[in-house]
Each structure stands twice: as structure tokens, then as C-alpha cells.
Design a protein that fits this description.
alpha+beta; 9-stranded antiparallel sheet; 5-stranded antiparallel sheet; 16 strands; binds nickel (II) ion
Length: 226
């Protein structure tokens, strides 16, 4: 499933974020890349232990917890602390697949990457290129979203970032280990949850609600690890 989640960050959070990113010292993005992706990767990142980046990362995690759409679609068990990157002057990230397992730096914690996420942090008008291109069985998708919007996609998909030929592209990126590792099962649960919510909005107290909600939870019980 490829899903856009609009307005993850508020205007105020975006302004603060932008201020921090504009003042930050960036380093070579290859520090967090695996063997194959290090060959393809050409961008800059904020150091993982950067105090302001840690603060931004925490506020993104809090924003995700407030987003019913993210919670329903990702069913997160663990979220890798969001990192930050910048592409400019022709920088790009060639075709790659994200590492299956990521160790959270300086901790014993590991995250299996079921879902990858990119949160766009500056408006598309500020740069040319920089599309996130994701390949799945339905074809090739080009993604370039307004500031504060997020794209969620299966970590199993090949993807790349096209060269940024004007301006700078700022984004946050992270991975999610879902309670439901299988993308197909997770997508069914998301579709069912969305349908139940729609039913409740359009026909409150419909007698089928309790049955459908039971089916949702009983499927989740079968498929989820918590
Ligand atoms: Ni990637």
C-alpha cells in the first residue's frame, strides 16, 4: 500500500523545524546507508545525535501518534527515530531497497523495516526534481508532496530520489515495524477500518457496526504481534 498522510505537522511545527534545519550542520548521508545503498546514495543528513534533530524527531513521533490515519495504516509496533536529509546541487539517491533490519544507534533496539516513510519538509516550489520514485507491482509512482505531508510505502519496494537540480529538498525519513508484518494483511485491515469509520459517520449506530468491529479485532488478533 502506498498512502499519503496530509498535514502531519502543524504550521507552527513546520516553522520551527525549518528554522532548525536552516541553521544545522549537515554531514554526508552515507553514514546510515547499507553496502549497496551507500553506492547509490548522495545526500546530506543531520547527525543522529544532533540535539535539535533529536527534539524534532520526538515531535514527529508525537505527531504520528496523534494521526488516526497513520495509526490505522501502519499499526506501528516500533518506529525508528526519524532522521533528516537534504538534497541539492544535483544530489540524488539511486535505486535501492532499504535494509531489512535497522539498529537504533547507541541502543540495543532493532527495528524490522516493514514500512518506509518520507515526510516532506519544504514546499515543492522551492526545488526542481527530487521526486521519490517508488516501484511496486502496480507500476512506478512519482511522489513529491507539500511541506508537512507524509508518504508511507512498503519497505520491500525498490525506490530512488531523482536529482535535485534547483534549490534544496528537505525531508525526514524513518521506518516502521508494524504489528502486522504482511503488507497484504495490513492493507485489508486498513480498508476494513476505513469502511467501519465511514459507516459510523454516515449511519451512526448501524447494527452491523458491532459485527464488523468484531471481525476487525478478530483478524487483528490472528495476524498481529504486539
Ligand atoms: Ni530508501
Amino acid at each position: 500500500m502506498l498512502l499519503q498522510i496530509p498535514n502531519v505537522l502543524t504550521e507552527e511545527e513546520m516553522t520551527h523545524c525549518r528554522q532548525v534545519l536552516d541553521e544545522a550542520q549537515w554531514i554526508d548521508g552515507r553514514v546510515t546507508a547499507g553496502r549497496q545503498s551507500a553506492l547509490a546514495k548522495d545526500n546530506m543528513q543531520l547527525p543522529e545525535n544532533h540535539p535539535a534533530a533529536r527534539q524534532l524527531s520526538d515531535s514527529i513521533l508525537a505527531a504520528l501518534e496523534r494521526s488516526p490515519l497513520f495509526m490505522s495504516a501502519a499499526l506501528p509496533l516500533k518506529v525508528f527515530p526519524p532522521l533528516f536529509n537534504r538534497y541539492q546541487g544535483g544530489q540524488s539517491f539511486g535505486n535501492h531497497v532499504d535494509n531489512a533490519i535497522r539498529q537504533v544507534t547507541g541502543t540495543p533496539h532493532r527495528v524490522r523495516t516493514d514500512l518506509s516513510a518520507t515526510l516532506f519538509l519544504n514546499p515543492p516550489a522551492e526545488y526542481d526534481g527530487g521526486e521519490l520514485v517508488i516501484e511496486d507491482t502496480f507500476g512506478v509512482h512519482q511522489v513529491k508532496l507539500p511541506a508537512g505531508h507524509l508518504i508511507l510505502y512498503p519497505s520491500s519496494s525498490l525506490h530512488h530520489v531523482r536529482p535535485v537540480t534547483r534549490g534544496s529538498r528537505l525531508a525526514s525519513f524513518f521506518w516502521v515495524q508494524s504489528m502486522v508484518r504482511d503488507d497484504g494483511q495490513r492493507t485489508l485491515l486498513f480498508d476494513l477500518d476505513s469502511a467501519i469509520q465511514r459507516l459510523n459517520e454516515e449511519t451512526p449506530n448501524h447494527p452491523a457496526d458491532v459485527q464488523l468491529t468484531a471481525v476487525y479485532h478478530n483478524l487483528l488478533r490472528r495476524w498481529a504481534d504486539a
